[in-house]
């Protein structure tokens, strides 16, 4: 059984986790940077990179201490090597390289999206390949056929904003604070989903892709009229997102061979309305619905350690010359 240390630093969470290949999470340490970025209403790359540099080493120490381990007990060191804010990615990757070099252990460069894509398998031993994955995060909105480790078919992607980005921008417009997704969801709980007429971009389109930019602009216009309660705009926005995701999902599923499981991953998978819609859709299509627990949906080190464990088991290790990638499609 292999024990993997995984580092994550591609956006605004600094994290280190230790996972064993039998799915035991031995430690997971995480530090959010919300307080660093709140005043700016979004993640500032340079501030994020500096915070990662300060936080990463203590988090590795904390994870080792929690697991009651030293670096000697670790079999391989995995880190997010992209895509993401490059300064932050470099902090995690360089830390992993230094640890790998000092301990003479293998380095595993993990694609952050693969971390999200495989994370449901960390908590669900029965989730076998292939499965249909809706990956919804701050930077991405993709529908993927996950065939195996390192083997993905992208069926659809967003032509403009990511779905999490739409939540974050909506929160900013409505003055709901940062991070936006959870704030919009909380406000929506006290609003009326039918109160504000908003568009459903690409709904009914004869192509598989997603689009959210028009929705965000419509939120801005609705808010500027001064006619609507913030809670009602939030609820109407969330409903529009749910409707768009459902319509686009239906388009692809209608046109492909049936798969046994529908899986959701990425930060937006923490959203209750989206999870409910997906669970209902899966049931209607005779698919099993798998969603990671909330803490595993948003960025964390365990998903990177787990992707590292899956890659390690497949013999996929990387050289110390691996270069961090700001863009890296699956
Ligand atoms: O996967 P993640 O932690 O980071 C990226 O790799 O992007 O996703 C963060 C995104 C943010 O846009 C955040 O607003 C969104 O996930 N998010 C949510 C919720 N929790 C986090 N969006 C909607 N509802 C939520 N409850
Ligand atoms: Zn992410």
TrEMBL record:
<feature type="binding site">
    <location>
        <position position="299"/>
    </location>
    <ligand>
        <name>Fe cation</name>
    </ligand>
</feature>
<keyword id="KW-0408">Iron</keyword>
<keyword id="KW-0819">tRNA processing</keyword>
<feature type="domain" description="Gcp-like">
    <location>
        <begin position="24"/>
        <end position="306"/>
    </location>
</feature>
<dbReference type="GO" id="GO:0005506">
    <property type="term" value="F:iron ion binding"/>
</dbReference>
<dbReference type="Pfam" id="PF00814">
    <property type="entry name" value="TsaD"/>
</dbReference>
<comment type="function">
    <text>Required for the formation of a threonylcarbamoyl group on adenosine at position 37 (t(6)A37) in tRNAs that read codons beginning with adenine. Is involved in the transfer of the threonylcarbamoyl moiety of threonylcarbamoyl-AMP (TC-AMP) to the N6 group of A37, together with TsaE and TsaB. TsaD likely plays a direct catalytic role in this reaction.</text>
</comment>
<dbReference type="GO" id="GO:0002949">
    <property type="term" value="P:tRNA threonylcarbamoyladenosine modification"/>
</dbReference>
<dbReference type="InterPro" id="IPR017861">
    <property type="entry name" value="KAE1/TsaD"/>
</dbReference>
<feature type="binding site">
    <location>
        <position position="112"/>
    </location>
    <ligand>
        <name>Fe cation</name>
    </ligand>
</feature>
<feature type="binding site">
    <location>
        <position position="168"/>
    </location>
    <ligand>
        <name>substrate</name>
    </ligand>
</feature>
<feature type="binding site">
    <location>
        <position position="181"/>
    </location>
    <ligand>
        <name>substrate</name>
    </ligand>
</feature>
<dbReference type="GO" id="GO:0005737">
    <property type="term" value="C:cytoplasm"/>
</dbReference>
<keyword id="KW-0012">Acyltransferase</keyword>
<keyword id="KW-0479">Metal-binding</keyword>
<protein>
    <recommendedName>
        <fullName>tRNA N6-adenosine threonylcarbamoyltransferase</fullName>
        <ecNumber>2.3.1.234</ecNumber>
    </recommendedName>
</protein>
<dbReference type="InterPro" id="IPR043129">
    <property type="entry name" value="ATPase_NBD"/>
</dbReference>
<feature type="binding site">
    <location>
        <begin position="135"/>
        <end position="139"/>
    </location>
    <ligand>
        <name>substrate</name>
    </ligand>
</feature>
<feature type="binding site">
    <location>
        <position position="185"/>
    </location>
    <ligand>
        <name>substrate</name>
    </ligand>
</feature>
<feature type="binding site">
    <location>
        <position position="271"/>
    </location>
    <ligand>
        <name>substrate</name>
    </ligand>
</feature>
<comment type="similarity">
    <text>Belongs to the KAE1 / TsaD family.</text>
</comment>
<dbReference type="InterPro" id="IPR000905">
    <property type="entry name" value="Gcp-like_dom"/>
</dbReference>
<keyword id="KW-0808">Transferase</keyword>
<dbReference type="InterPro" id="IPR022450">
    <property type="entry name" value="TsaD"/>
</dbReference>
<keyword id="KW-0963">Cytoplasm</keyword>
<feature type="binding site">
    <location>
        <position position="116"/>
    </location>
    <ligand>
        <name>Fe cation</name>
    </ligand>
</feature>
<dbReference type="GO" id="GO:0061711">
    <property type="term" value="F:tRNA N(6)-L-threonylcarbamoyladenine synthase activity"/>
</dbReference>
